[in-house]
What does this fold into?
Amino acid sequence: MAKEGIIALFFVDAAHFVRGGFAGKLWSRVRCFVKTAYGRKRYNVLGALTFCGKNVTTVTNDTYIRAEQVVVLIKRLLVEYKDKALALVLDNAAYQLAGKILDKTQFGNIAET
It folds into this structure.
């Protein structure tokens, strides 16, 4: 149905980039240290990749990905693809299974599938 343009199919996942280095192990003749940022600062990206066309819609922040960010992403997709039914493939991340996500009424008039 996605190939025929009937629905817009998305694969949704998040990536969490840490602003710092992690001590790894490797073989070398000389020990080398690289200065990096300290702490657990992150840059989070929640993205929805289309099955057809490989377009990406994202929500980013430097705190946490929570259910609120998933709601923002879904609302952006509803606006961007307003003429099609949406199908999202999600993983089992807790923020994607939260009650806010499962409650379809907050997204407006969404037809049941």
User: Anything to note?
Assistant: Residues 59 and 73 are 6 Å apart (CA to CA). The chain has a mean pLDDT of 82.
